[in-house]
Amino acid sequence: MPAPNNTLATLPTELLNIIGEDVSKADLASLLLTNSSINSALTPLLYASITIKNYVPGLKCADILAADPTEHHAHRDLAAYVRSFTVDLQTYRMAEKRKARFARSLEGALSRMSGLQSFTLHSAFLGTPNIWMAFTRGAARTLRSLCFTPEDESVWPDESDAHLFDGVFRPDFLELTSIVLFLDQDLLPAWYVFFRHVLASRGAQLRTLSIYDYHTPSIGYLFPDPGAWSALEELELMIQNTPMAFADFPPGPNVRKLTLDTSFYMGEDSLTMLKLPSNIPAHVFPNLEYLACPYLLLPVFLPAGTSSQRPIRTVRLNNAYYDPHGQAVDSFTEGEDPPWSNVRNVLSSLPRSTGPVVDLAFYVDWFDAETFPGELAEYVRTVERLVVVVRKEPGNGLSLQDFGKKLFAHTPKLQAFFLSDAPLKAADSEGAFFTFIWDQQKPWLREWDKYTSVLKEVAFTTEHSWKKTDDGWVKERYAKAESSDEEDEYDESDGEL
After folding, report:
1. What CA–CA distance (Å, rounded) separates 236 from 256?
2. Strands (DSSP E) found in 339-456
3. Which pLDDT belongs to residue 118?
4. What is the per-residue pLDDT for 266?
5. For the range 227-230, what are the long-range contacts, defined as Cβ-Cβ under 8 Å and sequence gap of 24 or more?
6. Rounded CA gap, 9 and 16, in Å?
7. Are 31 and 38 in contact (CB under 8 A)?
8. Residue 360, helix vs strand vs coil
9. What confidence score (pLDDT) does residue 496 get?
10. Which residues pair with 477 in a beta bridge?
11. How many CB atoms lie within 10 A of CB 137?
């Protein structure tokens, strides 16, 4: 009896897809060349998710997707297979002819993506009316997630006509639940009319909304009916150089995650500039669990003297976070360093949360290691993860050995404690205090063990951390982050390939 002809091509499509999802794009493309049956089964997977970061391969990809199906094997419309499409192309050094060539190809590709579910365009000069019209005509009915950066007409490379906005074309996004918009001060008013329509038509269905607004006269224009945003779960507003009124916010009865980034110095007049009351009524964001905001706004969300408080469990103040590679320091800019005394005052509102707060990150200019732990302890008794970002070397740094009895003895749930020196190293990469005292860190950890049994992870710097094991504290050095993206070489003389 002859042996059964078991080959890869005889596998069910479901198994082939599992294999295809587990290999690289390059290997998947090679696999398609082995057999016509495999090619037919896995071609949709190859084109399902596409990210363009470089010009030459990106242009080739866009040309293929824009081509008529008759030009492809078996007359397949390859663009119709695309479900996720991201354009993150660096265009600032690109010749004008190249921008125009890519934009025209991109328009053709987007217009054919009839099954597109996620579209991200975050490349300068490419957010034109022609691009907008192309993808909305192709994918308005299937799109679920949109990230878009519109551009002013002065930089459109594709000869888009501003009068396109004069028409009545208002697509219905039937599936759209996530929107991210990057808005600039020089945009045509018609852009805002378009986005107002999109937000109004999807207000009751949106789950996540992020708006990065760099100078809109009033962000409230984009929210014609804030009360309709009943399904919204995550809201992020980055408002630069523009006062924003509380009345402009969607109330969000189901908002769990709220991020407010005002990007200006939070001085004593900040609440006035933000037009926020001293406290926000309890019926607004009543189910809030995650709050990221300038530190002065924390008491607004956890006000004193009210019986009903929000169940906030995660608090991130002044963009504080722990980056294990110490690379991301852009958020920590000079002139925005809140004094510890000011931060300490607002942290007194933390115990009011009904969450309670278990994850806390804040940023300060400096602290005295001798007094800091005792002043902090009474506000973080429920915290399980604590991140403190500092710009300057702490005073009395050797007093960190006393954090055990002054802080950890009073935080019975604290499992992870991170000190980030990223801003300090950004100012002086060779002078980070906590990097130099690495030989004292392990004795400090042993001293801290006398006062806590739950602390399992500690970092004094962004270069390495300490993990508690059965054999004691072990240092883990972070691998340096490496960029895998290669830039295309641009010929500025004629802009041609």
Report:
1. 11
2. 359-364, 385-390, 416-420
3. 97
4. 47
5. 227/251, 228/200, 228/203, 228/204, 229/203, 229/204, 230/204, 230/254
6. 8
7. yes
8. strand
9. 33
10. 464
11. 15
DSSP run (H or E) holding 32: helix 25-32
Q: Where do we find the tokens 């690379």?
A: 327
Nearest to 119 by CA among 196, 180, 39: 180
Contact 84, 118 (CB under 8 A): yes
The pTM for the full model equals 0.86
pLDDT of residue 406: 97
pLDDT in tens, 353-375: 999 999 999 999 999 999 999 99
pLDDT at 407: 97
Count of helix runs (H) and strand runs (E) in the chain: 15, 16
* Residues in the chain, pLDDT under 70: 1-6, 9, 165-169, 185, 214-220, 224, 226-228, 239-250, 262-278, 325-336, 425-437, 479-497
What are the tens digits of pLDDT across the range 234-252? 999 886 655 555 555 667 8
Please report, for residues 11, 150, 458, the alpha-carbon distance to residue 466 in angstroms, rounded to integers and kept in the order given: 47, 45, 5
CB 391, CB 366: distance < 8 Å: yes
First-last CA distance in the chain: 59
Question: How many Å apart are CA 162 and CA 189, to the nearest integer?
Answer: 11
Residue appearing with tokens 């492809």: 72
Write out the two tokens for 121: 């365009």
Distance, CA of 487 to CA of 54 (rounded, Å):
6
| Sign of the torsion formed by the C-alpha atoms of 265, 267, 272 and 274 | positive
> Which residues lie across from 141 on neighbouring strands?
none
Q: For the beta carbon of residue 33, count every other beta carbon within 10 angstroms.
A: 9
Q: Which residues contact 84 (CB under 8 A, 6 or more apart)?
A: 48, 49, 50, 116, 117, 118, 119
Contact by Cβ (8 Å): 420, 387: yes
Contact indicator for 29, 46 with CB cutoff of 8 Å: yes
Q: How far apart are CA 391 and CA 340, in angstroms?
A: 11
d(C-alpha 306, C-alpha 176), whole Å: 37
Please provide the size of the chain in residues. 497
What is the maximal distance between C-alpha atoms in the chain? Answer: 88
Distance of alpha carbon 64 from its chain centroid, rounded? 31
How high is the pLDDT of residue 490?
37
User: What local confidence, expressed as pLDDT, does residue 13 receive?
Assistant: 79
The Cα-based distances of 95 to 106, 157, 171 in angstroms read 17, 10, 33
Q: What is the pLDDT of residue 249?
A: 64
- Classify the phi-psi angles of 74: left when phi > 0, otherwise alpha if psi is within -120 to 50, otherwise beta: left
What are the backbone angles phi and psi of residue 7, rounded to the nearest 5°? -130, 170
Q: What does the pLDDT read at residue 299? A: 92
- Cα–Cα distance for residue pair 427/431, rounded to 1 Å: 9
Structure tokens at 13: 């499509």
In three-state secondary structure terms, 437 is coil
